[in-house]
Write a structure and sequence with these properties.
Helices cover 38% and strands 10% of the residues. It is of the alpha/beta class. It has a 5-stranded mixed beta sheet with strand order 3-2-1-4-5, covered by helices on one side.
Length: 202
């Protein structure tokens, strides 16, 4: 009986099939993390009919440096106090035309919520988490005031009404009713959050 030369061979014909099945398994079971975004409604691209003059006292400036420190109205401010300061600015009613404002009516601060603008500027090296936290605090200031007015007018929180209105499963009749209410509250405290051009670190 003749002797076979060399070591025995391993049948590798099915290795490609096994590798392909493993690849499919990992593709199906792997979850890919996505960055959290900010929900923003951009205005239409239409030039204004006339030049708008904005008084400096109607602009609430918030600057974030690369270390995550806040400079609000030229003063260092703790992040925990940002929402309260923004509410104070938006609810000021300095010119006396806002009959629902409960602020101090400081003549050196914002005239009316419809004229009040929050300007946010951050450094190129600002951490994303800090940027999102500041955004949340500023949007929270608007929602706090809108919730107050929605409770006064309709006995409900604005955030609940808005969530129900945006829910596609809400019946059309209820959405039509909520549409006018949501817009009415939004018009009392319109969200005018402007982002200035990012600055570079020195």
């Amino acid at each position: 009986m003749p002797r076979r030369g060399g070591p025995p061979e391993v049948n590798a014909g099915s290795m490609a099939d096994i590798a392909f099945l493993l690849l499919i398994f990992f593709l199906v079971t792997t979850t890919i993390e996505t960055d959290a975004g900010l929900d923003r409604m951009l205005p239409p691209i239409e030039p204004p009919d006339q030049d708008v003059v904005i008084k400096q006292k109607n602009i609430f400036t918030v600057n974030i440096n690369k270390n995550g420190q806040l400079l609000v109205e030229e003063e260092l401010l703790d992040l925990r106090d940002l929402r309260a300061r923004a509410v104070e600015f938006l609810d000021n009613g300095g010119d006396g035309t806002c009959n629902y404002c409960r602020g101090g009516k400081d003549a050196s601060s914002s005239d009316n919520p419809t004229k009040a603008i929050i300007s946010l500027k951050n450094d190129r090296e600002t951490k994303y988490a800090t940027y999102i936290t500041v955004q949340n605090e500023l949007v929270g200031a608007y929602n706090e005031l809108r919730n107050r007015e929605a409770q006064r007018l309709y006995g409900r929180n604005f955030t609940e009404m808005e969530a129900e209105f945006l829910n596609p499963e809400t019946p059309a009749s209820i959405r039509d009713d909520l549409k006018d209410k949501v817009k009415a509250v939004q018009d009392l405290f319109p969200q005018k959050l402007s982002e200035a051009e990012t600055s570079a670190s020195n």
